[in-house]
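Record type: monomer structure entry
Structure origin: computed from sequence
Chain ID: A
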Amino acid sequence: MGNKRKHNFQREMQARHIIMLSLGGVIGTGLFLSSGYTIQQAGPFGTILSYLIGALVVYLVMLCLGELAVQMPETGAFHSYAAKYIGPGTGYTVAWLYWLTWTVALGSEFTAAGLLMQRWFPSINVWIWSALFAILVFVLNAWTVKFFAESEFWFASIKVFAIVIFIILGAAAMLGFIPIIHSQSAPLFSNFTHAGLFPNGAFAILMTMLAVNFAFSGTELIGIAAGETVNPEKTIPKAIRMTLWRLIIFFVGTIVVLSALLPISDASVLESPFVAVLERIGVPYSADIMNFVILTAILSAANSGLYASSRMLWSLADKKTISPIFAKLTKRGVPIYAVIFSMLGGGLALFSSIIAPDTVYIVLVSISGLAVVIVWMSISASQLLFRRRFIKEGNSVNDLAYRTPLYPLVPIVSFMLCLASCIGIAFDPKQRIALYCGIPFILFCYGSYYLTQTIKKRGEGHEE
């Protein structure tokens, strides 16, 4: 039964779809809206350093995921690896943490999209827009896998194109080819010299590291899509390499431009640091252009998010740990009940952001922030244990189609760096709530897994 269902997933995603899916999940509000806060906290140099360390962490985790996903390409990948190599309770918990991450993100993304539309249509209620965008994203996901992948490719392409243009214009302004409004001389490096290396001390980098890690979350979508990918042993390594280079170019390139052209005094107060920089360069209609780009970025992240959370539910049902209804696929190979349930979760997150923004919603956001880093830790640990078992069973490392380099250094270092950012949360009063809410949630997941398994075994015993 399980095998029959698995084969119904249609392998229709090409390398370009996977690369854009992963970029689509990553390039969202974190880069377009929150980057100004990071610059204000860590200063220009500190921010660039934070993003470089963040890119390194992501790359190490992706190297671990690559070996697992090529060897065992399945939909909802990394919770299956955690269940198999760490323990079934861990796999179950990782899946729910990851599901919650994206479901909460859906709620905040639909709200943000509605708020952005206020610029052009101030008389129409935000919730009407939020509902319309929710319906659009639902349809894109519910039709076919190919339809979803194609829509995500074009959504993500818009923001990638915008970032490339932004970096080119910014570099020209930094080098003095484009005159800057409100500035007498070419501003190259003047921002760096005024602010000093670390205006708020080197410890501020550790604080922003957490925000940067969360900004990079979404790259692991490559692993989730492995089960719906054409020729995974070629596509996935290629997607991992391409994604890393694009992340470094887009994130670090953008941050260099923002750090150079945006005075620290302006960095925190502004809505989007991009608009401020474009206005200083003198780009006409820059606020409207960025509003449109940020809107597509948010919808693209929501599109990726609904895909990710529905595939997690499908995978849990396929492993028979939750109701089998979520494993049912339509004729076009879409787990429709999992998509509907994840959409309802997004609706509840949206509702909690209106009714209880200071309690329920802040708890959800803090758990989802911590969850991504825990998922990355599970990927690193799974790869370490997988390789050990693979060799113990008499296989050779040369049999692997894709190998994580520098084993066991890469999984250990990536695990320790993720752990460091979890420990760092304890020192930041604003983010400490993530531990207070996240740890009980994790314990609840473990408890509920073992409780349901015990009840199930007793039931099977009585039937005999």
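Annotation 1: The chain has 19 helices and no strands.
Annotation 2: Confidence is low (pLDDT under 50) at residues 1-7.
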